[in-house]
Amino acid sequence: MKFCSNIVAICAIASTASAFTVQNPSIRANTAVQASYSYLGDLNGDGESGTAVAQSAKKVSTPTAAAPASTPAGSIAKKAEMSAMEKYNTPKTTSEIFDEIAPVTVQGGSLRTCSFDESVSRVSVYLKTEGRPLNANVELWQGPDNSPQKMSVYLEDGSLRPFRCTIESPGSSNAVAIRNTGQMEFPLTAGLDVDMSGSTEGPGDVLIANCEYRTVQGGAVYTTPFPPSVQSVQVMLKSDGRPLNARVELLQGPNNNKQVMEIYTEDGSERPFYVIIDTPGSGNVVRIVNTATVEFPLTASVEPYIVDEGNMGSDSTPGGMIWS
């Protein structure tokens, strides 16, 4: 009887020791995580057990060594700047660019805005129609109730002579607003192309540095005719930091406006105006009017952009009769 009681005591001690055998505290924490993962797995309906989900989560959270960059950051920035300059140095028609971008439709009387981050150095704006007249206001917004650059655009034929300009966007909180001021029967198609190369020199700066320019005093008029071989011209307007107010017109024939742009720029040095005007046909004249007072002169440069050597102005009709 005494021998049996000793055996029972030894069994009780052994069971008590196994009952007090606990796991590592770190494993106990993992057990709680497994339970929570199992609960989420049941809610998602995937039927996975807590251990399987926890192991998969542990595999996902395992840090891996980042692959070394094969190309230095300086080379990438230099390559982006070269590609941006190649984009400006390679002449393309506005119709070709519309095939490469994703345009949007702006109905008559409506407003469309497009915002972008501060890594964008400049943005190109493209407007066209299906052959109808175009009336629109294009503005650069920077912060609330601040429009450092505005322009009013009129096109007699938005398909034959689409609008194409480049707006400098230094700083942050920039957005481009396009308002179709025409009637509901005259929608327009708008597109944007951003330049994130980080270059401080835009196409207008390159033009005025490599071509001739002249000063247009306040209230003065500057006109430049072009031969029929010139398919498009580039116009650049800037000031010495003072506000810029001007009107750029494309004439074809006496007092026949095909395209009119009224420009306002808060700082003509930081945000110059650069536009490419399509000039199909013959008898094209670009007229620049400085609508500001005599205290605000501006610098203008007008040069051909695309020249068709095959079109030297040969008359295809008797007497050279041309309707415009």
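(ticket continues) Second input and output from the same batch:
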Amino acid sequence: MSAAKLVRPNLSVARNMRASQAAGGPARYARSERSSVLVERSSSRPLNSLAVRGCGWNVQHHHKKAFRLFSTFKSEASGDMTSQDFRIFFKDSSSKVVSPWHDIPLKSGEGTFNFVCEIPKETSAKMEVATDEKSTPIKQDIKKGNLRFYPYNINWNYGLFPQTWEDPGHIDKDCEVAGDNDPVDVVEIGSSQLEMGGVYEVKVLGVYAMIDDGELDWKVITINVDDPKAASVNNVDDIEREFPGELEKILIWFRDYKMPDGKPQNKFGYDNKCLDKDFALKVLEETHEFYNKLKSGARENTEELSLE
């Protein structure tokens, strides 16, 4: 394993792992949240954790293989985690490399959706699916030639909905701006830190219409179906009851996170309101249609995105 530094190690997990290894047994990290993706490193060496500055990635491992259960896909790390070459690739059950954007379905069940976690909560490394690279692996964003970090930790699990696309050629009639050329962003508000490269079944609760540099950048609010409060949360009003003040925190975080770099606040459409579940579902329906047109060729790929 490369000499990457884990900034925020899980000390209780580390103690349990050391104790187990001292006793001659396999180390384990027992997850409380269900993921539909296996995580496995490309090296044959066992994996304790993957880390870049601002993000630690803990996984369950045995002597021969490191993995997370409940898989039809697996995600595999490649490259030095502290370098611009670091990637997380996704593979199917036959070990064929697939795209987390194109090959994971949007819907996971009746009324639930697949969420690809790019950035675990309470980390700062700006990880993202590389929509311009073949197979669209997860990588760390680059800014002015350097790996990009948020100025402070993001307080929720963050990522995308597969098979969605915010079309920069479509101007939203209400916000009067076009899409930002990315998949739809997801803010997962559950209590657990999820794993980078994990795919989770979530419930859609609401959506913010953020306007970033004159582009529409939807932020869909969700909760992992396995979160302890998931059964009690189905819409925006439920968020206020079960997570008092959380919606305002989300608004302020995304409004202000660029200000430490000297940039202005981001804006929001619809009078800064978090729109309800029904509106959010319409956003997903529309952006899924935009995606399908792009993927099928009905909409010309003028942005030169990777469609494989």
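Agent notes: Confidence is low (pLDDT under 50) at residues 1-54, 56-71. Residues 277-296 form the longest helix (20 residues). Closing as not reproducible unless the customer responds.
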